[in-house]
Amino acid sequence: MESRNLTKLLEEQGPFEVEGDLVGAMHRWDAFRRENGYAGYAPLLTPPSGNLKLAKLTAYGLPNYGLTLSAAEGSEEFDACTWRTPMCTAACVLVTAGKASLPSVVKARQVKTQFLGRAPQDFVLILAAELKAASLKHGGIAARLNVASDVRWERVAPQLFELEGIRFYDYTKAPASQRDDLGGRYHLTYSVSERPRSEAEAVEWLDRGGSVAVVFATTRGHELPSTWKGFQVIDADHDDGRYTDPPATVAGLRAKGAGRRPEAGGFVKEAVAT
Ligand code: SF4
Fold first, then answer.
1. Which atom of ligand 1 is nearest to the CA of 80?
2. CA of 241 to the centre of ligand 1 (A)
3. Greatest extent of the chain over all pairs of C-alpha atoms, in Å
4. Average pLDDT in the 29-44 region?
């Protein structure tokens, strides 16, 4: 079966609301999980304690919550990464669907992704409720809805970005022209990849005041280049809080072998200032 472009499918059916029959949606999610061999209901969001990357607190100390779907065609039915490249797909599968993850974790993501594709309004109601509850519990959170996907949430469920006390941020491989600016309510970092046009697309993001992530061939313990394409490079290896970065900066990462950060594209740049 050919997998369907998840964000396109959702955008055609949406946008989806954050208020509605939450109890019904939760019952349907519970039933869907049972149909797929689970004991019942489970939260959609991963809390800060459930993921090493999310556990890295930001400069503001906001707890990170993340939504992890099945990267690429991991759900078989839906492709959650419209702009993925061969290299990032390979790295992502290695990290999120290979030896690093238990089959039970992989399956749970697949089931979650299938529920989003088949019952998007239910999914968004539950997601909004979990975000609100987490924000209330902590007095504010950071949220990453595309931990391993590239869904245009600003089109699928724009009301999510009006929820109180939540700093939304994500990485994307989409050109700047393909993502909508929500006036600072959704911080996006463009991930440079191996595609020939990727560097030019990165400069477009930077020219618009956006952020880009670049993996450099800098080894651990060594300084990253000070600039890339004339833009300031900051050391982004210590946290995932990209929304705290100044406008028009490059989030520099050090290459970390085959499992290097998939959201950075797995494409290594020379460790010299440009
Ligand atoms: S790196 Fe991003 S775009 Fe590429 S497969 Fe992984 S989640 Fe999808």
1. 8
2. 18
3. 55
4. 96
